[in-house]
Queue: 3 jobs
Job 1
Amino acid sequence: MAEHRLLTQDFGTEGLQTLAVYQRRGGYQGLREAFRRFTPESLTAEVKESGLRGRGGAGFPTGTKWGFLPKDTFPRYLCCNADESEPGCFKDRLLIDENPHQLIEGLLIAAYALQVNIAFIYIRGEYHDQRLLLERCVAEARAAGLIGDNILGSGFNCDVIVHGGAGAYICGEETALIDSLEGLRGQPRLKPPFPAIKGLYGKPTVVNNVETLANLPHIVQRGGAWFKALGTEKSSGTRLFCCSGHINRPGTYEMEMGTPIGELLDEECGGVWKQRSLKAFQPGGGSMQVLLPEHLALPLDMDAVAQAGSSLGAGAMVFMDETTCLVNVSMRLVDFYQHESCGKCAPCREGTYFESDLMHRLEAGHLTRDELSTLTDICDNMNGKCFCPLGDTATWFVMSAYQAFKDEFEAHCGAGSCPVRAATAELVTA
Amino acid sequence: MPLAQATVREITALRDRYPHPRSAILPCLWAVQNELGYLTAEGMAEVASILDLAPSEVQAVSTFYSMYFDHPEGDHHVIVCINVSCGLRGADEIVEHVERRLGCPSGGTTADRRFTWESTVECLGACGGAPAMQVDHHFHENLTPERVDAILERLGSQPRPGDGNGAIAAPGAPAAERIEAPDAEDRPTPKPRTARSAPRKRPRPDASDL
Ligand SMILES: Cc1cc2nc3c(=O)[nH]c(=O)nc-3n(C[C@H](O)[C@H](O)[C@H](O)COP(=O)(O)O)c2cc1C
Ligand code: SF4
Ligand code: FES
């Protein structure tokens, strides 16, 4: 198991963003085959068989999610979640930049399986150029009869609407995304009812991540069983890992599931930069718990990483070398959650504010040990008690870092400056 | 001042694109901001009337999202990411450099009103090219102080909107016609330069607000 290019196989092809080149590379064959070989039901069954799990963070089996839609309730809606704002994640942007039609084809295949006549792509406001690109591609596909009425003579109708957000991480949470799409402040809704039962405009709705959908043309063409054989038993296929931080070759690498994390670091990322050693890394994105060098042996498998107390989440890998101050990193993440808290529930709205205040004072070396102990208190009062996962995850990294690097946190207390910076000054200037 | 005819047409077309008109709020607000440079009360009221909503409903939505401006900003908008991946690769140095060069703190606008800049904890989705920033919605990655200088230099020496430069896109042109070529990223956006403004204050749950 190693790098395996499925979704990224055509990346770099000149003009791939145009319909002509995409079709020359076999594009929209998956959609044609879906119409020819599958009914909506058998297509859902094929996706179930493939073992495809959502790439948006939670890893829920896609076919199973589709199966939750109540029969005979129409209209239904499909939303592609392109709100990608998880710190450390940039794969969806790459998938759109490099091969936008692959996503649109996947979206149409899902729409056919779900019998949806209007599909949305909700893309974060910061991805301005990517939204314009998608709009151009949708127009091109519409003109070619791939979007609209009676697509490719199949009798199936589907329109695609590209919808730009305006700067709110929480709109990546599926019910907040739906609220935002309805023209409201993007705040999460109570679940249940789940979107599959009552989603957009109160109708059954499926929300799927960009990468999840981009897998579908390949699953249709090569078969669910083929896909299932790729990767590990419970994590099939490949995944795009967004690697950043203190490494020689930051970037996105598509890996077969099951490859050891250390191999991703050494072979693809070129190892830790400046010949330094690894201190810690964060898989999954800003929400997930810190892992240590000993965890490099873990396979890229959702369950294996979950057992180690973290998660593959949305496919980020942030590597930190020996000069990194974990208090500083935690502070940046806590600031992020404080900024992005939607304000709907008190534990998160207040808790992230206190967290951020404490972390800033700790980072500057002005916190007392007594005050440090309130950090744990605050996090305990948030984790599991917030209205949506944003508030819970706002505590995960900082708490895991506090546990793993207790000395480092305590050394900051009353130090007046960052002790890690002082201790590693020689390395940094070397 | 009423919105330009083209903007009104764009807003009407956006309304008709969705199963429910209200869904068009965010794109309609973008249309207003693209024309005026920020959201005016009158502009939001026009959106409300076209979407058949109360002006307060539109305003309440606008304040939730951090990318809409409620007052005029500089000609160019610079956002420097300071989240983890960028922080690990020198974002603080970039922030200091931008602050020194533009002579105003994060959230501020230069005296000549060419630039508004801010540092942000919102990861921009460019961590593989950290440290990164966006200028007028376009990505700039693998920044060094020298590269930042070159970018700001280029933008700062351009003819300004209102200086009679013909290169400005017609405000309110349909989005599909406004696709920029990658090298056109320094095209100035038309923004009114009216009253001076204080640094933008983002809504934030502050103990004193509660
Ligand atoms: C705070 C928060 C932010 C999220 N952001 C995203 C996101 O940016 N993109 C995404 O695909 N999923 C995001 N999710 C997960 C979505 O709620 C949802 O599970 C996902 O889009 C489902 O798609 P999938 O089944 O294809 O993974 C987020 C969840 C939470 C709680
Ligand atoms: S946990 Fe935070 S983001 Fe989620 S509903 Fe509560 S305030 Fe909003
Ligand atoms: S951390 Fe700066 S772009 Fe992601």
Job 2
Amino acid sequence: MADNIKHKFFFPQRPEQVWEYLTRADLMELWLMPNDFLPIPGHDFQFRIKPMPQLDFDGIVYCKVLEIAPHHTLSYSWKSGPGNGKIELDSIVVWKLIPKDNGTELLLEHNAFRGFDNLSMFSALNGGWFKNIQKIAELINAATRETTKL
Amino acid sequence: MLQPVKQQNFDVFQVVADPSRRQILRLLSKDSLTINSLAEHFDMSRPAVSKHIKILHGAGFISIQDIGRERHCILKQEGFEKLQEWINYFDNFWLSKLGKLKSLLDNKLKN
């Protein structure tokens, strides 16, 4: 089970060139989505994607610029919901650019579950279910034996 | 106390946004526990713990089994599946968008 959204991409361009495509609304639209982004901390903007009713998502992503360190780090909040401005998902997108000899390494992290300890819990849960199901089966069996004895 | 609750009343993200509820899930990921033993891990009142359990139950994160006189809480996969569905969707979303960015920049380099 994936415990977080993380991607690493390498580009042969310099960080400044990649940065432009992450922070200029017209260039962002070319590969991402229509938006009204501005590289200003605290700026509220929106992305529009295809609605996904089965995920309670009306297609509008409400964002706010959280951090900007030119050519290095960019983060924004990423909130969505089923409609009428109702927010159910409160997540954060973080971009990091790492200069390399022959280009730029771009790291993306999309944390959907704030305070979830990087969701390390997910992996714990995978093992946990089986163990708990076994345990509960034992308890039920024990309870049944008890009742039979009585 | 723990009446069945309509699942759509709870959004999975709202459910896991609460630190106490995450703590309950964490405790249950190690072992199934009775409501009483779960309540011992918290400073809040037992009705407050019950309320969190009710919400987790309603959203499909746990199931409750009556065994003897005790109510046992067990993790349930259903709630987590929705979170996983979301992760998968956006994982693919970013992967395809980044691929697009890569070809955009590659073309730019060639010109």
Job 3
Amino acid sequence: MCLKPSILVYGYGNPGRQDDGLGIRLAGMIEKWSVQSGYSHIVTDTNYQLNIEDAELISIYDIVIFADASIDPEGDIELTTVTPDPKTEFTMHAVSPGFVVDLCHAIYNRHPDAYLLHMKGFQWGFMETMTKEALENLDKGFNFMKAFLEQKSGKPDKGRPVKSVVL
Amino acid sequence: MGQKITIEPVTRVEGHGKVTIHIDNDGNIEQTRLHIVEFRGFERFVQGRPYWEAPVVVQRLCGICPVSHHLAAAKAMDVIVGAGTGDGLTPTGEKMRRLMHYGQVFQSHSLHFFHLASPDLLFGVDGDPLTRNIIGVAMKNKDLAVQGVMMRKFGQEVIRATAGKKIHGTGAIPGGINKHLSEEDRDLLLNGDDPVNINKMIEWSRGALEFFHDYHKKNKDIIDRFVDFPSSHLSLVRKDGALDLYHGVLRAVNSEGKKILHDVDYQDYNKYIDEEVRSWSYMKFPYLKEYGMSSGWYTVGPLARMNTADFIDTPLAQKEFERFRSYTEGRINNMPMHMHWARLIEILHSAEKMKELLQDPDLLKGELVKKGNKQRTGVGLLEAPRGTLFHHYKINEFDQIVMANLIVSTTNNNQPMNLAVNQVARALMTGKKEISEGMMNAVEVAIRAYDPCLSCATHAMGQMPLEIALYDSNDKLIDTKRSI
């Protein structure tokens, strides 16, 4: 018997600002792939930006992967571990993944293993079309995530997403 | 040697503000300025687009109050499709939009209070920035933090149920709304399992007010005297003078309570309001034409609305409104820190309005859209969480938008925010050689009372610390400090 972890892939960003939509686009691709692969324990969500209610959202998962565009990751894509971080910002317009994880722990006395996939973006103008270079990084991010999620998941199963799956 | 102090939040793309404080050789404050680099290009961006796209496209302006832009644009397009203004829609169309709007105000105000204001209140203006946030609140008062998270979530659920999605929904269309409320969503919001139901939201809204009153009783210095300057106030009010966040006529009162804008039709807003450009800021300074910039500027937002309205049409909020008004013995309330109190009253009012609407059968059935003779121009106004939001569009014979003018709430508050910064600087920085953490926090708290929207149109990446840079009279950098 082994337990399959519940996983959330959470893409965020502004798809109306060119490459800033990388995270949301990736979440859509993962959604399609996980359904086709029978990975029912993997769910996706998207948002314009992170905020405090996301602490409640992530609290029910074992693993959360945030996905976002980035100006200067190490390389074209980069996966970093998200550690709880109490630092907040001047206004309430957005909080960091670390802040969401820290708030989750403060309220629910637990938090998921969390990661942030950075995908390098290049242009941030007012349009929905992404740059060619960003689309290449999106493919790299997608391929990396498939391997990462398979490694975390084990064998595919069928059924409704639950917190833990007994195989 | 004179000095220039700069307090600058660092952001990624655009939409950042900075504060510069000029000090003379004797340490006196010579001048303060709040610069907000607000992206104005959006008005150009929508030009050439078909008018029916505007309510969806303009939501890209902001991730915190997209519903406000969505509805203001939709209201302007109601005029263009000949459906009239605000109350000219079908009952279902208007009530669904109102429910969406009250959900938006509820979640935005809740976020501000629990995420930004309550940490300041619990830990003080001088509190450690690393604990002066909602995580610190959770450590000290977990119930309060949970309420903040769940109230924000409830508002988002109302938006999802009415607009189709939590962010960038498509509910409002020119002339009405594109769906009814489902019975499932109505039942969930009315009677869902605790804590996601409207009765719990009303209970918690009242609890937040009690929290504020308790704090206020013990901390009158910060709430009543932290910042206080005379201001005029502007907002929409219902035709009978009631607080109305979705639709009404434009009213302004001066600092002594005299009406200086007499319940006018907002389709004619540009007869009464103009905007001044200043070389040192990208953000314009709106003012009432009749009084000129020097005395025609005004405050918008929750405090302004408490000053312009004659009453509130929901019982619990009305009771709080009476307490609010009696605190200044009926006089105009010019204390910006009372914005927090006003915001909490509006949270309670929004919760009461949502309950009233959720019980209304018109949301589940009835005509969704109304149209009439097409017009070439339309203006949409509503009271967004931060204040009056103006959307004005013109279209050509091909239905393309050829002109768009937006006056967002934060722009309306430009002058009062500058005055608040000036007053704090004079009180705390005069004669000082160094900028303390507390002084920096005080400037931040004064600006934050207005809940400014500094990073519309993109989510911020990374942290957004306040940075102070100290310059001598020759603009040479001599010191810097960061808030976090």
